[in-house]
Write a structure and sequence with these properties.
- The chain is built from nine helices and no strands.
- The chain is mainly α and 163 residues long.
- α4 packs antiparallel against α5.
- The radius of gyration is 17 Å and the shape is globular.
Length: 163
Amino acid sequence: MRKGLTATVLALSVGLLTVGALQAQDQNANWGMFSNALVKAAKHDNNGVRLGAIQQIAIYGSHLDVDAAVFDVVGIYRNSADENERILALSALAKMENAWSMDFLSRSVRFEDSERVREITIDVVNQYRRGPANSESAMALAVWEAQQVPPSTSEIEALLSAD
C-alpha cells in the first residue's frame, strides 16, 4: 500500500514538473506558477523529485523566482554524497544568483575535499562576482539563449578572438 502511494505521488510530481517545463518553454509561460511548483518540489521528501526540481532551476533559473528554495539547493550541495548531485546543485545556484548562497560557497570552498567540485565552485563564485555586465561572452550567451538559435561560426570566432 505504501509503495503504491509513493509511486503515485512520485508520478504526479514528475507529471507536474514535466507540464511546468513544457509551459516554461512557451514564451507566454507563467513563470510565477512554475517557480512556486519548483520551490515545493525542491522541498519534497523524495530525492528524485528534489533533483528534478533542481535540474529545472539550473535550466530556467534566469526566468524564475526560487529564492525560497535556496537553502534546499545548498543542502544538496553541502550534504550529498554524490558528486554529480552536488554539481547539479552548483548549476542551479549559479542560475539563482542568490547573494547568500554565493557567500556560503565562497566561504566553504576552502574546506572542499573534491577537486572537481572545488574548481566548479570557484568558477561559479567568480562568475557571480564578475557579473554578466562585465563579461562579453556572458552577454553573448544571454542573447543566444534568448533567441534559442546557435551562433554562427563567424560569431563564435569573433567571441573567441575578443578574449
